[in-house]
Amino acid sequence: MKTRLFTPGPVMVPEKVLLKMAEPVFHHRTPEYENLFAKINEKLKKFFMTDGDVFTLASSGTGAMETAVVNVLARGDKAVTVRGGKFGERWDEICRAYGIETVQVDVEWGRAVDPEEIKNALDANPGVKAVFTTHSETSTGVLTDLKAIGEVMRDYDAALVTDAVSGIGAHELRPDEWGIDIVVSGSQKTIMLPPGLGFISVSKDSWKRIERSDLPKYYWDIMKYKKSIEMNQNPFTPPITLLVGLNESLDIILGEGLENLWARHALAAQAMRAGVRALGLDLFPTNPSNVLSAISIPEGIDGGLLVKTLKKNGIFPAGGQAHLKGKIIRISHIGYLDEYDVLSALSGLELSLKEVGFSFNSGDSVKAAQEVLADR
Amino acid sequence: MKTRLFTPGPVMVPEKVLLKMAEPVFHHRTPEYENLFAKINEKLKKFFMTDGDVFTLASSGTGAMETAVVNVLARGDKAVTVRGGKFGERWDEICRAYGIETVQVDVEWGRAVDPEEIKNALDANPGVKAVFTTHSETSTGVLTDLKAIGEVMRDYDAALVTDAVSGIGAHELRPDEWGIDIVVSGSQKTIMLPPGLGFISVSKDSWKRIERSDLPKYYWDIMKYKKSIEMNQNPFTPPITLLVGLNESLDIILGEGLENLWARHALAAQAMRAGVRALGLDLFPTNPSNVLSAISIPEGIDGGLLVKTLKKNGIFPAGGQAHLKGKIIRISHIGYLDEYDVLSALSGLELSLKEVGFSFNSGDSVKAAQEVLADR
Question: Which residue segment(s) compose the domain that B187 sits in?
Answer without folding.
Answer: 15-256
